[in-house]
Amino acid sequence: MKQAILIILVAFFVFGCKEKYTPKPKAYFRIDFPKKTYHRLNKDGFPYNFDIPDYSKIVHDTRNPNQPYWINIVVPANKAVLHLSYYNLKNSKNRKELAELMEESRRLAYKHSIKADAIDEQIFINPGRKVYGTIYKIKGNAASPYQFFLTDSTTNFLRGAFYINEVPNIDSLQPVIDFIEPDIIHLIETTNWK
């Protein structure tokens, strides 16, 4: 009898102590975002100005040194960058037509359609400031979740492309995209031509 109880207890401990493994879902670090405050980018000689976040910095585009108005708005804490390229439509040097620039902007946005789940286009019109354009919101695991162009249709053309310097994974990058989206919209809404 004691042997039977001993065998049952040993069997209970041997077979009963195994934990069932439950896989844990992938988790991402919590990101603390700063308070949204802005200041005016108003560089001397620049043909445009707009508001940018206080937690960003301006870096000239070193890959295009012959383009003095091409800049990058960098948010270092989030490894995010908004590349801005500017064209003077009346400048005979490096001249491009408005229709050509608009089509190039559309083509560059739709290059991401391979990885994108959808691309939403939104027309932007601000007749008081003479700023018109299109915003491309690229959904899914695309490298660039936002692109846009702005123009006054006669002299100025500004194109923007937003990137996060990480492997595109919408699950982990969505909080950063959601945080910076209002900054991009604020930049577009506050753009002026000089």
Bin the strand percentage. 25-35%
Uncertain runs: none
Total number of helical segments? 3
Q: Roughly how many Å is the radius of gyration?
A: 26 Å
CATH hierarchy class name: Alpha Beta
CATH topology grouping: Protein Transport Mog1p, Chain A
CATH-wise, what's the superfamily?
Answer: Mog1/PsbP, alpha/beta/alpha sandwich
Residues in helix, %: 10-25%
Q: What is the topology, as strand order, of the major beta sheet?
A: 3-4-5-9-8-7-6
**Quaternary status of these chains?**
single chain
- Please give the largest β-sheet: 7 strands, antiparallel
Q: Structural class of the secondary elements?
A: alpha+beta
Mean pLDDT: 88
**CATH architecture identity:** 3-Layer(aba) Sandwich
Bulk shape? elongated
Number of strands: 10
Order of helices and strands: HEEEEEHEEEEHE
What is the CA–CA distance across the termini?
Answer: 99 Å
Short description:
The chain is of the alpha+beta class and 194 residues long.
Explain what this protein looks like in three dimensions.
The chain is α+β, with helices and mostly antiparallel strands and 194 residues long. The chain has one domain: Protein Transport Mog1p, Chain A (3-Layer(aba) Sandwich), CATH 3.40.1000.10. The chain is 25% helix and 34% strand. The protein contains three helices and ten strands. It has helices spanning 2-16, 98-110, 170-189; strands spanning 38-41, 48-53, 57-60, 71-75, 80-88, 116-126, 131-140, 146-151, 156-164, 192-193. Strands 3-4-5-9-8-7-6 form a seven-stranded antiparallel β-sheet, with helices on both faces. Strands 1-2-10 form a three-stranded antiparallel β-sheet. It is elongated, with a radius of gyration of 26 Å. The model has no long low-confidence stretch (mean pLDDT 88).
